[in-house]
Write a structure and sequence with these properties.
Layout lengths: L2 H18 L12 H13 L4 E5 L5 H9 L5 E6 L2 H13 L6 E5 L2 H5 L6 E6 L6 H11 E9 L6 H12 L4 E6 L5 E6 L2
Parallel strand pairs: 1-2, 1-4, 2-3, 4-5
Antiparallel strand pairs: 5-7, 6-7
């Protein structure tokens, strides 16, 4: 199965599952296709090689990120749900991208504290209520010249105001809100 077909299949699965599933933890809550295309362009245009994703779900966004990386690129993706972790693993194998994905099953906050790597892009698409508790670790892990991308910045702006304002107040960051998908907040760290 080619990459385009896998992405289409995952979109359809996500839409049908989320339309009938009432329990939030069982929804996939995937990014939109135009957000995936936007992330792909960001990865390619910034020549990113090392990406951190917080919130894997079933791997839809991870596949967009990993497929946009050069051969030696790597996405480290963190998911706390074992069921979603396992589903994503199968999807990564189908997409033939396991060589570009380091899949972590853990709580993001505890795992971030253990990391020593620096990342070109950090993509946040998880429990928004936890972002402020991880903001110090996120900043430490972002390379100078790196980019934080936060999903749901328009659809759930009220949940992200404090997080977005935090970066807007810092002189070393240039920020913008992009109205693609559910809204992407970008914070660029000066090189």
């Amino acid at each position: 199965m080619n990459l385009s077909n896998i992405l289409t299949e995952l979109e359809e699965l996500g839409n049908s599952n989320d339309s009938i599933e009432s329990e939030r933890s069982k929804k996939y809550l995937n990014i939109t296709r135009d957000t995936g295309e936007f992330l792909s362009v960001l990865v390619k245009s910034t020549k990113s090689q090392n990406i951190l994703e917080i919130g894997t779900s079933n791997g839809y966004s991870t596949i967009w990120l990993a497929s946009s990386l050069p051969e030696n690129g790597l996405v480290t993706t963190i998911e706390c749900s074992l069921q979603k972790f396992n589903e994503a693993q199968v999807n990564f194998e189908k997409a033939k991208l396991t060589n570009k994905i380091d899949q972590i099953h853990d709580e993001a906050k505890s795992y971030l504290a253990q990391l020593n790597s620096k990342f070109d892009i950090i993509f946040l698409d998880a429990d928004r209520s936890l972002y402020m508790s991880m903001v110090v670790e996120i900043e430490k892990l972002l390379k100078p010249g790196g980019l934080i991308v936060t999903d749901n910045a328009i659809s759930h702006e009220h949940e992200l105001i404090e997080f977005m304002e935090y970066f807007k107040r810092k002189s070393e960051y240039s920020c913008c809100l992009v109205s693609v998908g559910k809204g992407e907040f970008l914070a660029y760290k000066s090189a």
